[in-house]
Amino acid sequence: MGDETANNPAAMGMSRHVQNKIEGKRSESLEADCRNFIAHVTGEPVDCDKFDALKDGVLLCKALNAIIPGSVAKIENASKNKFAKRANIEQFIQGLEKAGVNGAELFQVNDLYENKNLAQVTIGIAALGRLAQKQPGYSGPILGPKESEGYKRDFTQEQLDAGKHITGLQMGSNQGASQAGQSFGRPRQVNPTGK
């Protein structure tokens, strides 16, 4: 058996709707930027118009090691072995996670290997680009916006105390609420004799 992905039939019904929604999130220009970023960081060309050249995980691992040396200890020889390819992709994802990339930006192995969710793969590679921007001395290409570093706010004790006495609207409000004027049918008739 070769390097084929699972032979899944065409999606129908709700599965098709979900797949169309995922495909609608893809951006060809961002995918091209991701491929160019990987090629520049690794110094090796990405040979195709899609992510097929990245399916063995080798270029991904090399890119992560170029940005953060030692992130992937061993890159598997993935010439024909699909398990080694999947292991390389998994090591790349784990390396991103160890480097502090938000879990919402990571993708699963099947998202890339079986083309399940290439939009999420693009988000993961863009997260690698933001990670590169945070490294001291990095002067390579920029992929995606720079990650924000937060905005610290300083409040005085008086401002903090004033905020304790304000009821937030998410807690609800009972101003103007009463049951006056409500009538829901006849009142309950209590008759001790049962007649």
Structure, explained:
The chain is mainly alpha-helical and 195 residues long. The protein has seven helices and no strands. It has helices at residues 13-24, 28-42, 58-67, 82-98, 109-113, 118-134, 157-163. Helix 2 packs across helix 3 and helix 3 (58-67) runs parallel beside helix 4 (82-98). The longest helix has 17 residues, at 82-98. It starts with 12 loop residues before the first helix and ends in a 32-residue tail after the last helix. The model has no long low-confidence stretch (mean pLDDT 82).
Q: Care to give the gist of this entry?
A:
43% of the residues lie in helices and 0% in strands. With 195 residues, it is an all-alpha fold. It is built from 7 helices and no strands.
List keywords for this structure.
43% helix, 7 helices, mainly alpha
Helix count equals: 7
Class based on secondary structure composition and strand pairing:
mainly alpha
What spatial form do the alpha-carbon principal axes imply?
elongated
Largest sheet: none
- What is the terminal-to-terminal distance? 84 Å
Percent of residues in helices: 40-55%
The unreliable regions are: none
**Whole-number mean pLDDT:** 82
The fraction of residues in strands falls at under 5%
| Topology, number of strands | 0
Element-level helix/strand string: HHHHHHH
Please tell me how large the radius of gyration is: 28 Å
How is the secondary structure organized here?
Blueprint: H1 13-24, H2 28-42, H3 58-67, H4 82-98, H5 109-113, H6 118-134, H7 157-163
Helix pairs in contact: 2-3, 2-6, 3-4
